Amino acid sequence: MNDQILFENVSKFYGEILGVNRVNLSIPRGITSLVGPNGSGKTTLMNLMTGLIRPTRGRIQVLGCRTDEPEKLFRILGYSTQFDSFPKGLTGYQFIYSYLRVGGRDSQDAEQLAWQAIERVNLAEAATRKIAGYSKGMRQRIRLAQALCHDPRVLVLDEPLNGLDPLARSEMIALFRAAAEQGCHVIISSHILHEVDMISDQVVLLSTGYVVAEGQIQSVRQEILEHPAQILIRCNRPRDLAAKMMESGHTIEVRIHNDERGLLIKTRDADGFYLMLNQMAVNGIDIESVAPADDDVNSVYEYLIGNEEVVR
Q1: Which of 12, 123, 269, 273 has its CA 20 to 30 A from that of 86?
Q2: β-pairing, 185-190 with 287-292?
Q3: 90 and 18: one domain?
Q4: In which region does residue 9 sit, left (phi positive, over 0), alpha (psi from -120 to 50) or beta (all else)?
Q5: Residues 25 and 78 reside in one and the same domain
Q6: Angle at 238 (CA atoms; ends 288, 159), nearest 5 degrees
Q7: Of 166, 197, 215, which one is at a domain's C-terminal end?
Q8: Phi and psi for 52 in degrees, rounded to 5?
Q9: What pLDDT does residue 303 have?
Q10: Residue 180 is part of a domain; what is its CATH number?
Q11: How far apart are CA 44 and CA 34, in angstroms?
Q12: How far apart are CA 170 and CA 164, in angstroms?
């Protein structure tokens, strides 16, 4: 089928190390989230569908295009990795413009498309500054602009919300939804279950290289109500934020970091917590970043899949 991303019995081994094994997937239009802890196979799956690595066995097609045909594939696909790798000395605009020129666009077309992509990710004011001076969130957005700039039919985004403040996260989620509504396949990797539940049309749960579940995830919120999530927040006034958190009733534990620049909270009400956090962000507290605590993400994931042996 030419309107889906297909994995047919796909495995990838790095020597004796398993990347993914026996993957059979059909990914339709809309937003699909790949969910799992570090080492579960999310990035391997993305690198396979973008042709950056080849499967050990099996077949992959992206909207009818083979992944060993990069010139055809990258006309319809945009990829944003979670890693920084920018040519030295370039501004944000030059980075996008040069990518389009290498892709075969003439100078006038490349200039127009570069500015359109930069404006879509709300980075126009910083576009003429060097990327070396960008914050983590700004670098995240300029990578997304590169993935978007040629108007692809498939967007593959590896941890695209990491490092963004609550307002920027909300803007990016709205952008993903708009792309999906225009018929784009948006594939996102994440280990933030609240965001997956909120934005995804479907999810793929991965564990140690195997797909353990796929489909809609409306039931996830109910399954984790009794399993508290831990979230790390960096902000300018952690003690004030901690006091408000405890008053709100949305948290069961709050710990302030020794550097006085952040706090770790536990909550059983993710919806209420994130809503309250967004309200605080526009009422005087400067929230720099929000991220799950890695150990707890793994424990929540283990809680979701249980301790049963995976069927292989």
Answers
A1: 12
A2: unpaired
A3: yes
A4: left
A5: yes
A6: 35
A7: 215
A8: -75, -25
A9: 53
A10: 3.40.50.300
A11: 11
A12: 9
Query: Residue 83 has what pLDDT?
Result: 79
Sequential DSSP letters for 141-205: HHHHHHHHTT--SEEEEESTTTT--HHHHHHHHHHHHHHHHTT-EEEEEE--HHHHHHH-SEEEE
Block means of pLDDT (10 residues each) for the chain, 312 residues, are 88 92 93 86 94 95 92 92 83 95 91 95 94 88 92 92 79 88 91 71 86 67 57 84 80 83 81 74 74 53 47 29
C-alpha to C-alpha distance for 110 and 146, rounded to whole angstroms: 12
298 vs 47: CA distance, rounded Å: 22
Q: Give residue 125's domain range.
A: 5-215
Number of domains in the chain: 2
Q: 14 with 101, same domain?
A: yes
* Residues 206 and 62 grouped into a single domain: yes
Q: Which two tokens stand for residue 1?
A: 């089928």
**Residues 280 and 157 placed together within one structural domain of the fold:** no
* SS3 assignment, position 268: coil
Tell me the two tokens of residue 76: 């319809």
Single out the residue in 215, 250, 270 at which a domain terminates: 215
Residue 107: Cβ within 10 Å count: 10
State the amino acid at position 7 in one-letter form.
Answer: F
312 in a domain, yes or no?
A: no
